[in-house]
């Protein structure tokens, strides 16, 4: 068993053991934010026929300039031309409506004078003016999205315009959370003296949903004997793609996570990562199922989630598992020099054209306080000196900025 | 009726006529991403009692250094101390478990030697070491969130730790979309020759949901006579907080949006905005209901949504209506000089420490192409000269960066 691996080794072991989930067809409005399972091509020309961009008169002409036309017909909304225009002829058309074959341009009504069956233009017209040619936006067969692209509003629009009601997207990873810490009870239970409410479960539920996962359940087994915990874990592994355990992950007498995971028959990928907080993290696989064991300390649990679980959820959905990363300027200082590589919870913001970051208060791994406002992790390398205000640090943005 | 107002006037007219929605209690896991309706305070001390940060021995001592202690008891997981420690006494404790009254520090088990009923420390201990004092993270009554804050994972954790199962958040705005363009049919219908599939409805549904809205329905009235369209709009106004109409908003013979809106008894706030695309936008109010009329051209409709509807949806949920905005460096050029103020669809990205933006292809207001990849609007002021590569422009970021 690999122990105390680097973060990069841990991520590679996890994502290297994952196979992206299968595709599923979902209704257009439900597809937004999901990940395309396959390349998507325009199913037809858009617009499907040449259309007028204005209310006015479609006109046909030869090579000579012409400013008088014979009105051949009038197309209202929803009308489709059953005639074509010869040079010198015109037809009334509406915005977005089809123009008759032979149309060279459309004169907006405000620049046309009608006299009997003739119209005269009061403004020079160039060929193509106010026409949206068939296929101007997309030609049938044009690629509109690639496998791995996130379905956004524009793609939804193109698919709707083509009449596609379904999109094939990667299935959502099914996630279950199991609290293993002793004396941990569900947050909605009333804890007996000495027991503690599980705050990690609801936090992980929220975080995993943001990453596109479907959360099947949040359970605790802290009150169970080892056999009960093992059966609970086995049950979750039958339905979930990823089981996140929290707590029981240190090396004390009551720490049962590693034992329980081994008892399911899962193969341990690593145990212990050289980061702080989150050093008591581990991972295992059972068939195509992933188990990630995180600390029971809330901040360590959350850091472990972002660095180890979120990349797995992204990989399962065909996305790049690596988080974004950029430099930011410190707005305050971090007085401690570093031992182990540390991930400090920070708040990043934009000041004119540069990114700045605050080290948030309440950074003990047992404390929730830094999580109230965090939107980034600040990556301080092993053995770093104290960090001064104005210094640049590497940050991993986590939430919408 | 105000016509051809500036964008800022339009926004002020819209948000100035809105009252934030009432609050509603929702379950913790459903609250993430919603907006706090009221200030939230910690309901108890966290941790609720002084706890050990490690597995080891809680010890009590006076002012003298002491390295031998009499073992008074042993607290396993879930145990609560029914005794206190006098100087010179110790008790076995577990990570996260309560320490007995009188505890001055906890010796990790790896630095303790047990001989009979005595333990000896092999490492100097300072008062407070390895103790998480009661209320260290939060004291009962500490503010943890303010009205208008978005519920994030950390707040969910604090509320779970306090045993709160519900959060009061602003109600979601109820939105309905009504396509008024003549010859427009629902995207899942098979259009007759001359008819066009409604792509704006699904796009607006996706966009409004992103902004926290509940979308009640997407309808089209393009096939109806005026009376039918009016009844449809009235019906939607009975259940929706915001009705977005698309199409029929220009000033041609078949443009019915303004007429229909007036027929409902709504008060028109403005009609026409000095922006491109999206100049054919308008807004009206009926009691506390908002109607925003957008162009039927997809790109104009989307620009109008971001600039006029999204701010309203934010204001209804107690958020700052103003979008974020910053400068970015152009990666390509925009060759046209400007007439009206223009909002070009762009793609912003980060290059090391600066933001850059691309003008996307397919910028005609009738085209969907620029919407496939857009994540920002580029705000080009009225009368701007052509924009060169390397120039700075003001951008409104729209989606997660």
UniProtKB/TrEMBL annotation, chains A, B:
User: What's a Gene Ontology MF term here?
Assistant: metal ion binding
Instruction: Give the EC number(s) listed in the UniProt record.
Output: 2.10.1.1
Q: Which SMART domains match?
A: MoCF_biosynth
Checking Pfam families in the record gives:
MoCF_biosynth, MoeA_C, MoeA_N
Obligatory cofactor(s): Mg(2+)
Entry keyword annotation includes Nucleotide-binding: no
Alphabetized UniProt keyword annotations = Magnesium, Metal-binding, Molybdenum, Molybdenum cofactor biosynthesis, Transferase
Q: What is one GO biological process annotated to this record?
A: Mo-molybdopterin cofactor biosynthetic process
* Lineage top rank: taxon: Bacteria
Q: What Gene Ontology terms describe where this protein resides (cellular component)?
A: cytosol
Q: Which CDD domains match?
A: MoeA
- Give the MoaB/Mog domain ranges: 176-315
Instruction: Give the metabolic or biological pathway.
Output: Cofactor biosynthesis; molybdopterin biosynthesis
Main role?
Catalyzes the insertion of molybdate into adenylated molybdopterin with the concomitant release of AMP.
Q: What family does the database annotate?
A: Belongs to the MoeA family.
Q: What is the designated name of this protein?
A: Molybdopterin molybdenumtransferase
Annotated source species: Desulfallas thermosapovorans DSM 6562
Phylogenetic classification of the source organism: Bacteria, Bacillati, Bacillota, Clostridia, Eubacteriales
């Amino acid at each position: 068993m690999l122990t105390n691996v680097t973060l990069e080794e841990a991520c590679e072991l996890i994502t290297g053991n994952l196979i992206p989930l299968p595709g599923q067809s979902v209704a257009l409005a439900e597809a937004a934010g999901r990940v395309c399972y396959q390349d998507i091509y325009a199913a037809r020309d858009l617009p499907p026929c040449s259309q007028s961009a204005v209310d006015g008169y479609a006109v046909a002409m030869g090579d000579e300039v012409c400013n008088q036309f014979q009105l051949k017909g009038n197309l209202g909304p929803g009308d489709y031309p059953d005639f074509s225009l010869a040079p010198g002829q015109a037809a009334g058309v509406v915005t977005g409506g089809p123009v008759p074959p032979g149309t060279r341009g459309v004169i907006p009504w405000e620049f046309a004078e009608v006299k009997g069956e003739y119209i005269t233009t009061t403004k020079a017209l160039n060929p193509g003016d106010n026409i949206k040619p068939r296929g101007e936006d997309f030609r049938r067969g044009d690629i509109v999205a690639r496998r791995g692209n996130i379905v956004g509003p524009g793609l939804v629009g193109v698919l709707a315009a083509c009449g596609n009601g379904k999109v094939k997207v990667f299935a959502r990873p099914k996630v279950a959370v199991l609290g293993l810490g002793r004396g941990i009870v569900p947050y909605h239970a009333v804890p007996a003296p000495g027991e503690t409410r599980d705050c990690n479960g609801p936090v992980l539920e929220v975080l995993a949903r943001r990453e596109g996962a479907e959360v099947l359940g949040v359970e605790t087994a802290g009150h169970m004997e080892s056999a009960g915990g093992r059966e609970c874990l086995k049950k979750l592994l039958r339905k979930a793609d990823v089981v996140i355990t929290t707590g029981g992950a240190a090396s004390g007498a009551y720490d049962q996570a590693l034992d329980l995971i081994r008892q399911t028959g899962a193969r341990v990928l690593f145990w212990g990562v050289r980061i702080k907080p989150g050093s008591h993290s581990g991972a295992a696989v059972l068939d195509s199922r992933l188990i990630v064991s995180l600390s029971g300390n809330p901040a360590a649990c959350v850091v472990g989630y972002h660095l180890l679980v979120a990349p797995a959820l992204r990989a399962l959905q065909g996305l790049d598992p690596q988080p974004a990363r950029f430099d930011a300027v410190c707005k305050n200082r971090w007085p401690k020099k570093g031992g182990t590589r540390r991930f400090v919870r920070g708040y990043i913001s934009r000041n004119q054209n540069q990114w700045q970051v605050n080290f948030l208060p309440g950074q003990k791994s047992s404390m929730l306080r830094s999580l109230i406002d965090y939107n980034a992790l600040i990556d301080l390398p092993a053995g770093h000196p104290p960090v001064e205000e104005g210094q640049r640090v590497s940050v991993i943005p986590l939430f919408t900025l």
